[in-house]
Amino acid sequence: MKRFFTTLSNIWKIEDLRVRIINTLLFLLIYRVGSFIVLPGVDPASLNSQKAKEGLLGLLNMFAGGSFSRASIFALGVMPYISASIVVQLLGIAVPYFTKLQKEGESGRNKLNQWTRYLTIAITAAQAIGYIRTQIAPEAISPVLGATMFNITSVFVLTAGTLFVMWLGEKITDKGIGNGISLIIMVGIIAQLPSAIVTEFSSRVTDTNSGGLLIFIVEIVALIAVVMFTILVVQGTRKVAVQYAKRIVGNKQYGGVRQYIPLKVNAAGVMPIIFAQALMFIPTTVASFFPKMASSTVLILLSNYTSWLHNLVFAILIILFTYFYTAITVNPKQMSDDMKKNGGFIPGVKPGDATVNFIDDVISKITLPGSIFLAMIAIIPALANMAHVNSQFARFFGGTSLIILVGVVLDTLQQVESHLLMRHYDGLMKTGRIKGRTAIPTAAGTTPPAI
Questions:
Q1: For residues 409 and 299, is the Cβ–Cβ distance under 8 A?
Q2: Domain 1-180 class, CATH top level
Q3: What sections of the protein cross the membrane (predicted)?
Q4: How far apart are CA 295 and CA 38, in angstroms?
């Protein structure tokens, strides 16, 4: 405990770090306050928030920190920006113009950021129209504005809200600590944790048949164990040794040292779960459009996220999407070319195609256990719900929310520790250094979107 307070004191002594932490907290406070401001012309008492807390909409509501169900000005959150970032990244693989921009350094990145912002506006406007039509009932709209005027103003407000949140994220990254967009998503998820814990605690204590306080303690211990397991998956790397040739320039010697390429066990991050979850809601959509098919046994099982068929298909999709996303984001050819330019080689492996094949083989081998572990983490919430854990609390036992929380916290703590070590203070841990999500060279030399 003494070391903990000493570390906090050291953090407060570093002026730059202190200012960055305060800036981060203030920006996040602005975001949380804005998430409770309802769209102009909407009656909060008439909103049916329960519909927006279920299924895929519940996932979006969790990412938006509850703003989605409250019809807030930040209802769409940063998800349109994340979607635009992914689209631009995929364009960098498929379209030569974007591939060229990704290789042009700072000027190319600036142009790509501009394209991402323009695409964010288009995606947000389209989603705003869909949100207004599907999530806000006519009786919740003030008759003073009228339906047409309300729709026009709400689209502008929702689009401006998303752009403002995006601006907050960029300011946190520049003036604060950690990745701003990731922190905004994390704060939105964490904001729902206290109420979920209180609800679960109350249900266990009041219901004598549910096991009482002892079962609640077991659930907390299980949650801690799942978090530790998730950290192992997020942190897991396979180090590939790279030897650099010696070069004599004047009186100095360069190179001749051995370094390592850290290949992530889970290089795809949380994206496979997001893609798989989107596909798993197709059966529910089909059943809503074709009521006669709703009684089909297969559709019923696929629509029930606690059924064995749903979890089996969900796990298989995650494994397949993990391989797919790893293949399009990690480029062994680019890594081999970069090593060759810098005079590096893998000991025992010839440069060129042999190096490409070696790296590709290593990635294929470590992706299999990584994808299986990711699938296990993704289906744990369903298992927790089957064990009669409150559905709101069960979401924190795995899935998208837990992986995002673990990754963002590790990245932020790593930045804090870097500031401490740079000023010759002890780090946050007694042994070793905190490792964030190691950046991996991708197909275009960039890193995947940080979520």
A1: no
A2: mainly alpha
A3: 21-42, 71-95, 115-132, 144-168, 180-199, 211-234, 268-290, 310-330, 366-387, 393-413
A4: 38
Q: For the sheet with 344-345, list strands across it.
A: 258-264, 237-244, 344-345
Segments of the chain assigned to CATH 1.10.3370.10: 1-180, 192-451
Question: pTM for the complete prediction?
Answer: 0.78
Per-residue pLDDT of the chain (451 residues; tens, 9 = 90+): 677 777 778 778 888 888 999 999 999 999 999 989 888 888 777 766 555 555 556 667 777 878 888 888 998 888 888 888 878 877 887 788 888 887 787 888 889 889 999 999 998 998 888 888 877 877 778 777 777 888 889 999 999 999 999 999 999 989 988 888 888 888 888 888 888 888 888 888 887 676 678 888 888 998 899 888 888 888 888 888 888 776 666 666 655 667 888 888 888 877 788 778 767 767 766 666 666 666 677 777 777 777 888 888 888 988 998 888 888 778 888 888 888 887 788 888 888 888 889 999 999 889 999 899 988 888 888 888 888 888 778 888 877 788 888 888 888 888 888 878 887 666 666 655 666 554 444 443 444 455 5
Is the CATH number 1.10.3370.10 carried by domain 192-451? yes
Cα 54–Cα 56–Cα 58 angle in degrees, nearest 5: 40
